[in-house]
Amino acid sequence: MRDWWKQWLTTNMGWSQSLLLRTLDILLVLALTYMILVIISERRTLWMVRGFILLMLASALSGTLGLPLLNFVLEKLVIGCAVAMAVALQSEFRRFLEQLGRGEFRLLFQPNRLAVPKSDSVIDEIVDAVKELSKNRIGALLILETSGPIDERDFSVPGVKLNAEVSKELIQTIFQPKTLLHDGATLIRGSRIVSSGIILPLSGRTASRQLGTRHRAAMGITERVENCICVVVSEETGSISLAERGTLYRPLTIRKLKESLEARFSPTVDREAVAPGLFSLISQIAAQTLALLSRLLRLPSTASRQKNKTEK
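The structure corresponding to this sequence follows.
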């Protein structure tokens, strides 16, 4: 009896340990998948990530089923797709590695915040100021936050704190050539001018010789930080540009600039986060699992009922 009990206990302990490891493996894969979804901020790239995840699952399944040739091909495809995604989503992966290096693990599981809407009056003040600066050929660089606050560590020099209401007169005054803050960038958060005289990191991309330091700075900060856009006014030509995710759109008319800002900051635009909350995701997975188990448990009873009806 004692030997049987020891054998039963050893068998069940091994089975429990195997089940625990499999559960831990699945949870870690789910956590990694969720982190990938968190760093993605656009739904158009979400389909690419889903395809990559499906390719990884197919590779793992082919290895489990003992299909060496298919597994070899799928593994090479997974490696190639991983490199392609790292290039296409370099700004997102850079932010992911920076947060990982800083030890900010909590931020890795926080979904992308919703865009901060700006009132029409704030957009009008910005557009009117840019119009006058462009007309007088006065160089300017505005940073507009699109969601959460920008970390000052992403700036080369944080600048001077202002915390003033947005107005076209103040923006024009800041960028007058004789002022001390005209060479730097101005950060706008919501309806407030947070700081001015900010020195930004320059982009390392190869750009046209027509682009000055302001344009390279706008491209550089939008490469590093995804939750902002930059409006640039050229000092030489007075042309208006808009930088987003390291890409510079130029030249823009005043009407086009206003339409672009309204499209990005309008409160009526659907800006649903790609990744849901972590607890919401866990509850959804648990609910779907319970529903699946309940269906499986109902199958035998349903089949027996149908059999009894057929016999009657």
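Residues 95 and 111 are 14 Å apart (CA to CA).
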